[in-house]
Design a protein that fits this description.
The protein has 285 residues and is mainly alpha-helical. It has one domain (12-267): Four Helix Bundle (Hemerythrin (Met), subunit A), CATH 1.20.120. It is 73% helix and 2% strand. It has eleven helices and two strands. The chain has a two-stranded antiparallel sheet with strand order 1-2. Helix 10 (224-240) packs across helix 11 (242-267). The protein starts with a helix and ends in an 18-residue tail after the last helix.
């Protein structure tokens, strides 16, 4: 036992610098998103409220980029470790658990009916609990091996956070380019936000299989058509802005249960994976 304790202390002292800094960057983005969502400090000094709320959603997507980079760098440098896995999940709990839940409450801030405001609060708490449970389940099921990490069991927490952040950015969009009717933004989004939050929350703790898109793109050389798809996606963001993010993230979130339901209809069986082992150093949990 003494040797094991010494070995554990030695492993914690030696950490991979770049992946760890990227993981901490994820947490910093999450904390910054809270600052902008509450419109205090720097956010109140330099930005209007609507701009501040929009930037809060942007910071969640920046946290996703850091989350992708830490897993990619850990794999490239062969520095994946249990310390990195635990740190990654703790930072994810902030950026993809607490912050999206707070954004849901923020979306309900302008609702007059008290019962609806309470519903936003309850759904936000449910979302946060499901995200933490999702990460805890991931930690006990994961290994450091990479070869079997192509499928997730349940909606990854960054994808769920992206669904909420994209809705937040669409609602508080302050740019002149609007591809969605004003009535839809002002009335429909606040109305469906609790249902949307509940859907992604339950999908996170489900056993619905989802492909690991980041690993599939970054882990190996891609077909030329995949490059064209990525370029078209970037052009779509440039032209349609937040609307593309809403469609992309909600399309990914709903694709899992739709494919599973289609499989059940065509084959007559509900074929969800018994156990999907995931990599703690991978970018999405």
């Amino acid at each position: 036992m003494k040797d094991q304790g010494q070995r554990t202390r030695f492993e914690v002292r030696k950490v991979a610098i770049l992946p760890t800094l990227c993981t901490l960057g994820n947490a910093i983005c999450g904390m910054s998103a809270l600052v902008f969502a509450t419109h205090i400090s720097v956010a109140a000094a330099y930005f209007e409220p609507k701009q501040s709320f929009f930037i809060s959603g942007c910071l969640i997507f920046l946290a996703m980029i850091f989350d992708v980079l830490d897993g990619y760098l850990a794999r490239r440098t062969k520095a994946a470790s249990q310390f990195g896995a635990e740190l990654d999940s703790l930072c994810d709990a902030i950026s993809f658990g607490v912050v999206p839940g707070f954004l849901l409450i923020k979306l309900g801030g302008n609702v007059d009916h008290r019962l609806m405001r309470d519903l936003y609060l309850v759904v936000a708490m449910l979302y946060m609990c499901c995200a933490v449970l999702r990460l805890a389940r991931f930690n006990i099921q994961s290994t450091l091996e990479e070869k079997s990490h192509t499928v997730f069991s349940g909606l990854p927490s960054p994808a769920a956070a992206g669904c909420i952040a994209a809705m937040m950015m669409l609602y508080y969009n302050y740019t002149d380019i609007r591809w969605v009717p004003e009535f839809f933004i002002e009335h429909v989004i606040p109305t469906i936000a609790p249902l949307a939050g509940m859907i992604v929350a339950l999908l996170m703790v489900s056993r619905v299989p989802y492909p690991h898109l980041a690993n599939r793109v970054l882990r190996r050389r891609q077909h030329f058509n995949r490059v064209i798809q990525i370029v078209l996606f970037l052009f779509g963001i440039y032209l349609f802005h937040v609307l593309v993010l809403v469609l992309a993230f909600w399309g990914y979130a709903l694709s899992g249960p739709i494919k599973l339901a289609w499989r059940r209809i065509t084959r007559g069986v509900w074929s969800a994976p018994a156990e999907v082992v995931e990599n703690p150093s991978t970018p999405i949990k």
